[in-house]
Amino acid sequence: MNRALTFLQSRAARLALAGAAIFAGATPAFAADETTRVLASRLGEVLPDLQLSDGITSATVGSAYRLLEDFNVVKLPVFVLLIFFVIFFFVLNRRVRKGGEVELRRLPGINAIEEAIGRATEMGRPVLFIPGINDIDDIQTLAGINILAHVAYIAAEYDTPVIVATRRSVVLTICEEVVKAASLAAGRPENYIPNNMRYLSDEQFAFTAGVNGIMLRERPASCIYQGCFYSESLILAETGFVSGAIQVAGTANVSQLPFFVAACDYTLIGEEFYAASAYLSKEPPVLASVKAADWLKLVIMPVMLIGVVAITISASLPAGSEWSLHLEEFVRLLKEIL
Amino acid sequence: MKTRVPIFITAFVGIFMILKFFVVTPWVSAVADELVQWGVITLAFAIILGVLNLAKINLKAVVERKTDWPYKAILLFGMVFMMSVGGFQWHLDMRAEEALSALTALEASGAAPAAVAAAVAASGEAQARAATNIFNFAFTRIYTPLSATMYSLLAFYVASAAFRAFRAKNLHATLLLVAAVLVMIGRVPVGGLLQVDLSDGTIWRPLVWIQDWLMTWPNAAGQRAIQMGAAIGMIATGLRVIFGIERPYLKG
Predict the structure, then answer these.
(1) What are the percentages of helix, strand and coil residues in chain B, rounded to 5?
(2) Which helix (H) or strand (E) holds A248?
(3) What phi, psi does A285 have (nearest 5°)?
(4) Which of B82, B83, B157 should we substitute to test contact with A (largest number of A Cβ atoms within 10 Å)?
(5) By CB count within 10 A, which of A115, B21, B194, B245 is most buried?
(6) Max CA distance (Å), chain A
(7) B248 and A174 in contact by Cβ < 8 A?
(8) If we measure between CA atoms, which residue out of A250, A179, A237 comes closest to residue A211?
């Protein structure tokens, strides 16, 4: 135990020294090239007592660069943002657990899901849900399945069947379990119909053709697309439109968003799609994580704003002027850090 | 236990993936790569689940003569046919490979010319059989054209969706319509025909310039804003899954 503590202390001391060395040095360690890092590291070994600046020896700087050798320094800003996110999450989670309220903006797309299921109930037709076309290792598929849980729960309450069409067999298995559990939780286990859980094909357009067939033959009253979609997005959404279904889409694929916006009644755009499950579940830790993401944006936005203002002023000044060069250098450094 | 073990596995794998992203230490990369391999193998085996689901649902519909059962019969026939020709092709490839190995071994051992000639003939026959390749024929002559047909439907769907989206119902829709028309004209050859000769001798093409400006600045800014929001949302969702706060894979 003592040995572990000593190791951690020495590691912490080295990290603190590394930080001091980085901020005291003229070149930020994360901006230094590979040769500089190796040279600094070797210098620290050969001439450990060489004074580089006030109180900073070559051994300290060498130690800092050796630590950075294990770390992908290009990704340091992402790491820092991740740490910020985790801190924000813990702060907000504690606040929510103590009874504090986290307010989320109203998402029309989420409200439309309930509306769509209600319409299907009135018409006595099923709801078609597609959790994207990617496999379970895609975070968008997981987000889509989260929404499916809520859709299946509401549909079971209304006694409306849900058809789920998947392109991947693992996604099918998970969707089966999700719909089964949601139907059970809603007190209507009979609402889970195994034949409505369908794996169509691993091939993109064979899957698309299969879904189109379901839309045109079984005429679902509502089509809900939540997940990762590619070029099939418009084929699906337009067929859904032709079949007269109310359509709610959600994806983080920027290139497919215009198609969904043009062809569907409601679309969850990018971040809204990820926040949807939190909006629906209202569980404190999930709400806290959505709010933490908002706080993280508050950290990023001022830095972006400074960069935009700096580069705009630089562009407005006469080319080659001293201030223009200073500002350009500042923006270059900002880009390097971020 | 039923929930803790999957959550532990998810957290373990997820943390290693995060570590691999930030740390360049070889052992971390080695473990992370190994975990990815396990994932790939598991997912590959899961195709059996899909085949069983497809067979169960469609076979039942065919046997019970439900509505549209002929489509389901064609689907089942297609699946069985492709699996059969794929298996047969694999068998032919193996036979061709075996014949070639036997021929190489005979030549190396200095066998009698007659025996070598017989082996050459056998190998040639096996290669010719393998080259007939019914699987590839079915894939390139049936599946690929069908897939291309589905994809080409996009041309018509883009037109119908654009027709609805570009109706100038209000100010926003009108702006969208104007921007879309400018970009469309600026991107086709006819857009470059409108030219202005400037005093310094250069030629300015206003429509090309406008579409370029629209795509480079307002469009790129909007797309990046959505991408950044989505990236942060992705991080939040990923961490929720890794730390077991949200468990979509355990909802059963």
Answers:
(1) 85, 0, 15
(2) strand A246-251
(3) -65, -35
(4) B157
(5) B245
(6) 83
(7) yes
(8) A237
**Please, are residues A198 and B57 in contact by the beta-carbon 8 Å criterion?**
yes
> Which residue is closest to A195 within chain B, CA to CA?
B57
Interface contact A195-B57, CB threshold 8 A: yes
**Length of chain B, in residues:** 252
CA-closest candidate to residue B130, choices B83, B82, B107, B98:
B98
Is residue A164 classed as helix, strand or coil in its secondary structure?
Answer: strand
Q: Answer yes or no: are the C-beta atoms of A338 and A77 closer than 8 Å.
A: yes
How many C-beta atoms surround the C-beta of residue A139 within 10 A? Answer: 21
User: pLDDT digits over A286-333, tens only?
Assistant: 889 999 999 999 999 998 899 889 989 998 999 888 888 888 888 888
Burial class of residue B5 in the structure, from the number of CB atoms within 10 Å of its CB (0-12 exposed, 13-18 middle, 19+ buried): exposed
Which chain B residues are closer than 8 Å to A195 by Cβ?
Answer: 57, 60
Tens-digit pLDDT string for chain B (252 aa): 777 898 899 999 999 999 999 888 888 889 999 999 998 898 888 889 899 999 999 999 999 998 889 999 999 999 999 999 999 999 989 999 999 998 899 888 888 888 888 889 988 988 888 887 788 889 899 999 999 999 999 999 999 999 988 888 899 889 999 999 999 999 999 998 989 888 888 899 999 999 999 999 999 999 999 999 999 999 999 999 898 888 877 765
Residue B198 to chain A, least CA–CA distance (Å): 23
Per the CB < 8 A criterion, the answer to whether A261 and B173 are in contact is no
Integer Cα distance of A322 and A318 in angstroms: 9
Q: To the nearest whole angstrom, how far is the Cα of B112 from the nearest Cα of chain A? A: 51
Q: A272 in helix, strand or coil?
A: helix
Residue A282, strand partner residues: none
Given B47, B143, B230, which is nearest A270 (Cβ)? B230
How high is the ipTM of this complex?
A: 0.87
Question: What is the model's pTM?
Answer: 0.84
3-class state of residue B7 by DSSP: helix
Alpha-carbon gap: A329 to the closest alpha carbon of chain B (Å) = 23
- Six token digits for residue B185: 């004209």
Residues from chain A that touch B83, judged by Cβ atoms under 8 A, are none
Q: Give the span between the Cα atoms of B239 and A84, in whole angstroms.
A: 13
If you count residue pairs, one on A and one on B, with CB atoms under 8 Å apart, how many are there? 181
Nearest in space to A248 (alpha carbons), one of A268, A278, A276, A220:
A268
The domain segmentation of chain A, as residue ranges, is 2-71, 77-101+289-337, 108-282
**CA-closest candidate to residue B1, choices A239, B9, A230, B120:** B9
CB contact under 8 A, A137 and B39: yes
Q: Is A139's CB within 8 Å of B68's CB?
A: no
Tokens of A164: 């789920």
**B2: nearest Cα among B248, B245, B252, B241:** B252
Cβ-defined contact of A262 to B161 (cutoff 8 Å): yes
Show Cβ contacts of residue A130 under 8 Å, excluding neighbours closer than 6 positions.
Answer: A164, A165, A166, A211, A223, A224, A225, A226, A227, A236
Does domain A108-282 sit in CATH 2.60.40? no
Sign of CA dihedral A98, A104, A109, A111: positive
Looking up tokens 């309450």, which residue turns up? A157
